Amino acid sequence: MLKNKLILTFFGLTGFVYGNGQILKLDTIIDSIKTKHPVVKMYDHEIRSMDEAAKGARSWMPPQIGIGQFMTPYDVRLWHREGDMPGMGSVMISGEQMLPNRKKLDADERYMKAMSSVEKEKKNATLNELVNDAKQFYYDWIILKKKLLILEENEKILDFMIKNAEIRYKNGLEKISAYYKAKAALGEVKNMQLMFESDIKEKRIRINSLMGRNAMTDFDIDTTYFLNSYEALVFDSTLFYTNRSDLKSLDREIDLTVLKQETERTALKPQFGIRYDNMIGFGGQPLQYTIMGMVRIPMAKWSSKMNKANIESLKWKSNAIQSQKEMMVNEYSGMAYGMRNELGLKKKQLKLFESQIIPALRNNYRTMQLGYEQNTEELFMLYDAWEILNMKQLELLELLSQALKLQVTIERIIEKN
Predict the structure, then answer these.
(1) Which of 41, 107, 122, 293 could form a disulfide with 263 if both were Cys (CB 3.0 to 4.6 A apart)?
(2) Tens-binned pLDDT, residue by residue, of the chain (417 aa)
């Protein structure tokens, strides 16, 4: 009997730890997103596809082989030998191979191997967005849990007011108006609890989706958070060029345009080839052959227009990308400085609320509660004291929510994962 109880206790504890009692920290969620989100596999497959294609960069043009009749008269009788006169015509077997320019192969290989570098940076940029989305959901969840704690406390306070007022009203010591306000407030508290609990479920679903697992998997979060300081950080071009993957992807695109220009230039170089024909003559003709060296001349004025136009086009494309980078850095810098200034303001407001406003209002409520219990204060005054305290507590959490959103936005801008 004791053994069975121990077994049940063990499985109960195991279910608590590995089942609904699972608590995830933000770092664990971020690590899971970086490895399990479907977008990771999508980019990895795209990168692999480009890398595999690059393996064929040094391929030669395929050889050409032909067989057919060569200088053969339509009159079949002339194919045959007549006395000392050999027949006319022959069967020709030919082969042709163009020899690639080594510099062109080198340029093509460098270009194709560099193509996947753009996708690698785009993958990191996409992950930055996903990670910071998860941070925002995580912090929203923390705020919701704090709000639920306040509502739980409010429920107890209002329940105390209502029960106490009912007793006093029966004894003719209380007015009924404040009693109904407390009843309505209690209903509103329960309504808000339902809303916040639903919002938490929605955050859980969104985080599960980002982690690449079943959206309905149950878990809770660690409510630890930190408000970071960015006062010492300089939001200049060096920071953004070093950190932001989207800017790095533009750098890789500029590199690609340079490499593509090189492939266009090498395409203007002559290309050599060789052709060999072997003729088997009719009617006693001797075996004959032809061997020729060939050269393609793409640098000719009439055949080089497209390559030269592409080279010029790529130059301007590179300039456009560079201007785009400068525009983005300027935008990111302005946003980051603005967000940092606003975050500093929110921190000061939070400190003021936590050190002065909330303690003073809480003491005011306790004083009113003590007076109410000693019959020196009325219910409506106690209710007003609670209402102001509750409003400011929720305002404090709203300030904290705004501060965390600003922090997430700054970390999104500087790509801090």
Answers:
(1) 107
(2) 434 443 334 334 334 333 455 899 999 999 999 999 999 999 999 999 999 999 988 888 899 999 999 999 998 888 888 877 888 999 999 999 999 888 988 999 999 999 999 999 999 999 999 999 999 999 999 999 999 999 999 999 999 888 888 877 666 655 677 788 888 999 999 999 999 999 999 999 999 999 999 999 999 999 999 999 999 999 999 999 999 999 999 999 999 999 999 998 998 888 899 999 999 988 888 899 999 999 888 877 777 888 889 899 999 999 999 999 999 999 999 999 999 999 999 999 999 999 999 999 999 999 999 998 888 888 889 999 999 999 999 999 999 999 999 999 999 999 986
